[in-house]
Amino acid sequence: MNERQHQLEHNLVADGLANAYKKIEPYSKLILAGIVAIVVGLIAIGLYTSGQTAKRSDATLQLLMDNPEVAQQYPGTVAAAWSLLYQGNDNLARGISALYTDRDEAETLLAEAKTQFIDARGASNDTILDSRANFGLGMASESLGEIDEAIEAYKRTIDANESEQMVEVAQERIDRLSDPSTKDFIAWFSEQDFSPADPSLPPELPGASSLPELPDLDLPELDLGDEMSSSESGEAEDTPAKSLEGGLELPADESPAEDAPEQPKADGASSDAGADSPAAEPTSDAATDPAPAPEATGTTESGDSDESPAAESEPSDAPADSDSDDSQ
Fold first, then answer.
1. Which tens digit of pLDDT belongs to each residue from 82-106?
2. For the region Disordered, what residue ranges are annotated (predicted)?
3. Which of 72, 166, 305, 326 is the most exposed place for a label (fewest CB within 10 A)?
4. What CATH number is given to the structural domain containing 180?
């Protein structure tokens, strides 16, 4: 009984399948194509998902390796947005440093940094990335002297509400930029050019506008009074005019012959006395007082002055002796 019932049920299932196959047989090709399309779609979705995962992984790796081309190679990814943020921070630092060496290069770098911060802000909805991009945009605008744009960027940083510390720093920047003295300083600083002079060029002279005005050198007239003027006029009349044509008038030098003794005369007198007196009978005075040696004439003036009295005394004795001999 059971076997019979089982056979009947099997026949019913087979008959149902046969009837169903007969019904769908005209649409069998379409059904097969649909099944194949579904399978291919599932495979394509799987491949695409795995490709995106690999792309994001590669982008993250390149970002960690500090590759600046991540944004161009993997656009639309979070890594590309972070790459733009990193590039903006790098150009911001280089631009601020170049403000003190090359103003034109600094403005170019800061403008590129602003563009990169704006692109990074729009490439992702991440709160941290948006906050950092807005803060960097504010710093770049502040360095270029664009105070209003800087304040607006700092306000967006506060709205992002990344953290309490970031909000506090952004608010401090806003308060500082709202100070009139800070505005004046930024306006003055934006007009300065701190580029060093080219050593190959000659130094430039300052312009006439930068030179100070000449001081007032007009001195007041001196009021000497009537007495001072009259005394000066009297002294001018009493003082004879001296001619300077012949030069300075110096006192005449005194002749040294006036002070020196007449040594040649004394020598001549002694020679005459020797000629008159006989050689055989010298006087006692002549014997006791010898005549000066010839070398006495070559001595110094002091020696001549000491010996001259002796030479002068000898002629006075010689004639006396000669007279006594004649009388005898």
1. 888 888 999 999 999 999 888 889 9
2. 193-328
3. 326
4. 1.25.40
Which of 190, 205, 220 marks a domain boundary?
A: 190
Instruction: Indicate whether 184 and 89 sit together in one domain.
Output: yes
Query: At CA 229, angle to CA 223 and CA 234, rounded to 5?
Result: 170
Per residue in 244-271, pLDDT tens? 444 555 555 555 545 545 554 444 444 4
d(CA 291, CA 156): 133
**Which pTM value belongs to this model?**
0.45
Tell the residue number behind the tokens 């960097």, with chain if given: 136
Give me the amino acid identity at 247.
Answer: G
Residue 85 domain-assigned?
A: yes
Give the angle 143-135-95 at the CA atoms, nearest 5°: 35
Contact predicate 118/137, CB 8 Å: yes
Check whether residue 90 and residue 184 sit in a common domain: yes
Range of the domain at 40: 23-65
Which of these, 106, 279, 300, 320, lies nearest to 195 by C-alpha position? 106
Going from the C-alpha of 115 to that of each of 107, 134, 141, 217, the distances in angstroms are 13, 11, 11, 59
Residues 283-306 have pLDDT tens digits of 444 444 444 544 444 444 444 444
| DSSP track, 227-279 | HHHHHHHHHHHHSPP---TT---PPPPPPHHHHS--HHHHHHHHHHHHHHS-S
Instruction: Provide the domain count of the chain.
Output: 2
Is 190 exposed, middle or buried, given 0-12, 13-18 or 19+ CB atoms closer than 10 A?
middle
Domain final residue pick, 132, 167, 190: 190
**Which helix or strand (DSSP H or E) is residue 7 part of?**
helix 2-24
d(CA 271, CA 278): 13
